Amino acid sequence: MSRDRTLFSVGAPHNHGACGRLHLIGSLALVVSTFLFTRSVDHLYVIPVSTSSSSPVAYGVDEASRFSDRASALSCPNGGDGNLLSLKIYVYEEGEVDGLRELMHGRDGKISVNSCVKGQWGTQVKIHRLLLKSKFRTMKKEEADLFFVPSYVKCVRMLGGLNDKEINAAFIKVLRQMPYFRLSGGRDHVFVFPSGAGAYLFRSWEAFLNRSIILTPEGDRTDKRPVSSFHTWKDIIIPGNVDDGMTAFYGSTVVQPIPLSKRKYLANFLGRAQGKVGRLQLVELARQYPDKLESPELQLTGPNKLARVDYFNHLRNAKFCLSPRGESSWTLRFFESFFVECVPVILSDQIELPFQNVIDYTLISIKWPSTRIGPQLLEYLESIPDEVIENMISHGREVKCLWVYAPDTEPCSSMLGILLELQKKVRRFQQSAETFWLHNRSIVNRDLIEFHSWRTPLPLP
């Protein structure tokens, strides 16, 4: 094994240029004094919240003016368009490891990549594709900081390519073929699980991936599971996969936002009730207040299926987009709302949001208790002045580029943000409880066999 490096490493020089829109992503490099200062003075802008169920929270003139004077939603101290990145990622080839192709194309190899790039699980494909073309990709395992394991299991499972038992067996088979996974106990290996089920798609995740880095939009499933597969110390929350037709920054999008004054509704909820309490309450609330809250019954199949253009036309026609939890705590609607410039209202108490170390979500969204869904919510939203809403929308424009899965060569993208977060997970020392080292820096296993002589299949950590 050869991973010789200097004992101490010095990062790339910082770029102290202006922090324009195209340099917003540089702030994702580290939590800095600008952000800390912003947080320390937050109390100056606290808007009093009534605890009385009969009295809605309301904005006054002073609160509105103070809100509009607040700092940028995204702290950007050192400029940067990836200049702070110093990272090498090895991406496993699908034919390199026995079993990996099954996780990407199913047992018969018939699941196409293009069929998996759309929908909420599309980030499994997009992140893989972007890493294959990334300037941070290395072809040498011995120099890699991190290892990316591609799999499209959510899509493969949904399309009948593998069942749960087969997915579990395929993952274990793949991991046993990876000496570097054994070397670190999985600490430097990265997996994407983009759906509400998260890492639970791999039934034995707790035994094998409890040290690995998991990329997921899903930060909590403890409502249905005894243990959450998301851990803040190692895992990364990623943005959901917004329709590409809405994220075209350098071309026309499927629909354009409309002026606030021309929007028909105060708020909307576009989604299926799915028997969930919060969603059912919103549907009922829309029946009671049809002039304020739109919540049409969505047809996702059949002749009355709502086309994507129709969906976004509905979404853009309200000042506030209500985002309740569904099967899990995250919702794609939160991310979609930024592209129609509708202020998202989070009605999901356990939600985790991406890049929280640099984004001030109080400037671009509202989080309302899911236990208080009712007329009080509409009264509160109705009390917010349009100038305050416009300011929230303006701040939202600053950060929405972080929801776009574009190449890391772009100055602002989900991918660049994820890479900067991944860099924070790199450890100088990655060995597991089953690896040992000798006086000459050689790495050996419990039988004192040197790493370069290890043979697969390997026992797993």
Automatic annotation (TrEMBL):
<feature type="domain" description="Exostosin GT47">
    <location>
        <begin position="87"/>
        <end position="373"/>
    </location>
</feature>
<keyword id="KW-0735">Signal-anchor</keyword>
<dbReference type="GO" id="GO:0000139">
    <property type="term" value="C:Golgi membrane"/>
</dbReference>
<protein>
    <recommendedName>
        <fullName>Exostosin GT47 domain-containing protein</fullName>
    </recommendedName>
</protein>
<keyword id="KW-0328">Glycosyltransferase</keyword>
<keyword id="KW-0808">Transferase</keyword>
<comment type="similarity">
    <text>Belongs to the glycosyltransferase 47 family.</text>
</comment>
<dbReference type="InterPro" id="IPR040911">
    <property type="entry name" value="Exostosin_GT47"/>
</dbReference>
<keyword id="KW-0333">Golgi apparatus</keyword>
<dbReference type="InterPro" id="IPR004263">
    <property type="entry name" value="Exostosin"/>
</dbReference>
<dbReference type="GO" id="GO:0016757">
    <property type="term" value="F:glycosyltransferase activity"/>
</dbReference>
<dbReference type="Pfam" id="PF03016">
    <property type="entry name" value="Exostosin_GT47"/>
</dbReference>
<keyword id="KW-0812">Transmembrane</keyword>
